[in-house]
Amino acid sequence: MRVAVVGTGAIGVSWAAHFLAHGLDVVATDPAPGAEERLRAGVAEIGADAARLSFTTDAGEAAAAADFVQENAPEREDVKHALFAVLDAAARPDVVLASSSSGMLPTAIATACTAHPERVVVGHPFHPPHLVPLVEVVPGERTSEAAVDAAMAFYTGVGKKPIRLRQELPGHIANRLQAALWREAYSLVDRGVASVADIDAAISHGPGLRWAVLGPFANQHLSGGPGGIAHVLEHLGPPTEAWWRDLGHPTMTPELERKIVEGVDEELAGVDPAALARYRDTVVRAVLAAKERTP
Q1: Start and end of every 3-hydroxyacyl-CoA dehydrogenase NAD binding domain (predicted)?
Q2: What values do phi and psi take at 36, rounded to 5?
Q3: End-to-end Cα spacing for the chain
């Protein structure tokens, strides 16, 4: 099977490495000068074998040769429309066109596809795709069930954990959940309740550990003891509603931006960002390995 990776920035490089590691042929495309060299260097750094990797600057050529298309262009509607018009014209009618878009709606993306808009989906990964299993599959108004089923099967076949959205929403699911957490984290910083470092510690040494194993509903169910989530909702439902009403509504002012940037600089003073990313990836791999070993 051959996958076209369209756009070879950080997400595209990671996708290419993931597909290669799962035994697929990859034809990558990007019009930027030096894109192929950066792609091959990135794939090598991740540790994937590039023997089955080819490159072209022609997106239509890549799509015409592919059995599945994973697009990773900039998050701009004009760019997506111009690109999907090319992909739609070039790819075989049965080939799914999946966008890695983190927030755009597939219905809007598919308006550029005059031939086969029914095969357009969002296939949103979580960074980095070669490591984090989640993929959000989002159909648009004209997407066929066959395209959704094909995308779900494809991602499952390359070791991902795809979930299907039943409704289009800006930001899909996981980014909206993150945005809810970020909103309150930014508000706490803005109000002087806690430092950036303490908020990071509160998550990474607290609920984040549980969230890496089970989701919010399953964890809440366990916290209810024998009564499960029904007990939690009965006893903590009213206080939770009060907390919701007290959550902040921050505005991204220059002052708040300054507080956040200074807080991160203070928290990570002297820490090499590349080393920090390697630490994160090593721990994530260990967590994933532990989950695989544990029934």
Answers
A1: 3-166
A2: -65, -40
A3: 31
